[in-house]
Design a protein that fits this description.
Elements (H helix, E strand, L loop, with lengths): L16 H23 L6 H13 L5 E10 L26 E10 L2 E2 L2 E6 L4 H22 L4 H15 L2 E2 L10 E4 L10 E2 L2 E2 H17 L4 E2 L12 E5 L2 E4 L2 E4 L2 E5 L5 H4 E3 L5 H11 L1
Antiparallel strand pairs: 1-2, 2-3, 2-4, 5-11, 6-9, 6-10, 7-8, 10-13, 11-12, 13-14
Helix pairs in contact: 1-2, 3-4
Pfam family, one: Peptidase_M24
Protein name: M24 family metallopeptidase
Length: 288
């Protein structure tokens, strides 16, 4: 995405028109997560929650997806005993009082993509509250080390070490290829937007094209613990999702990190938006 190389961070100037489009769809996705979370009640199933997300977004013009919405309840938020990709899809697991949940969606709107993760809990759960609070240190670590131009693999390992110090297990390692992040980009608008195994065909083609181009140039669009991620972050937009687990409770955030080719550390990488639910929560905790 060409505008990334000249984009300025939200704190130092106006975003480019392209970045504003990505910020708008990311905010739309988080608004969906908050709206659906507010409607969750005991007895609602993961499949129902996933359908609520789809319907809310479709009512607001979403017709394409990087991936269809997911919902995980209870110990499924920590991917307990997940072994195969099919286990990620929504089930008939019903929500209960005190149970954590994660809503995860990746809509494409007006050609712009977002991929977000929203963690919540139905009622009080001190363990879950602690997980959410401790995620803030990961957001800070990731941004700092991307600005230092550390390799993706090194940053991944440092996130792992921080989780261990906090007493948690790395649950994003359960994702395909163990990724903590992946690149996203513009998607051409088309009349027909099919999905395959829950993923948008057009978005998958774009990711495959990035993988081919990156392989030739020595970089990968997947941020993993493996050698193919042993390089500094490539300029572009990255959907980043550190995922903590403690026994049967999991929590994460997922949001867009912008990486540019600027020599100014503050402009070389920045979170696209600091007005998101998990960021506001951390700011409120700091102020109190």
């Amino acid at each position: 995405m060409g505008s990334v190389t000249t984009a300025t961070s939200p704190g130092s100037g106006e975003l480019s028109a392209g970045l504003r489009g990505f910020r708008e769809v990311q905010r739309l996705a988080y608004a969906c997560a908050e709206a659906v979370a507010a409607q969750l009640r005991p007895g609602v199933t993961e499949r129902t929650a996933a359908r609520m997300q789809r319907e809310w977004l479709r009512e607001r013009g979403v017709r394409d997806w990087f991936h269809l919405p997911f919902a995980w309840f209870g110990d499924r938020t920590a991917f307990v005993n997940f072994r195969v990709p099919l286990q990620f899809f929504p089930t008939n697991r019903a929500l209960e009082p005190g149970m954590p949940f994660i809503l995860d969606m990746a809509p494409v709107h007006r050609g712009f993509t977002a991929d977000i993760g929203y963690s919540g809990c139905l009622g009080l759960n001190p363990v879950h509250d602690r997980l959410l609070a401790d995620l803030g240190a990961h957001r800070e670590l990731i941004l700092r080390e991307v600005r230092e131009r550390r390799s993706l693999r090194e940053i991944y390992e440092d996130v792992d070490r921080l989780m261990v110090r906090q007493g948690y297990a790395n649950r994003h390692r359960a994702y395909p290829f163990g990724v903590i992040a992946h690149k996203i980009d513009r998607v051409g608008q088309r009349r027909w937007s099919p999905t395959l195994f829950g993923f948008g065909i057009h978005s998958l083609k774009g990711l495959a094209s990035d993988a081919l181009r990156g392989h030739r140039a020595g970089w990968s669009p997947l941020w993993s613990p493996y050698t193919f991620s042993d390089h500094p972050p490539a300029p572009g937009l990255w959907a980043v999702e550190p995922h903590l687990g403690f026994r049967g409770t999991g929590a994460k955030f997922e949001e867009i990190l912008v990486v540019t080719d600027s020599q100014d550390p503050q402009e070389s990488a920045f979170w696209l938006d600091d007005d998101l639910p998990h960021v506001r929560r951390r700011q409120e905790e700091k102020s109190t």
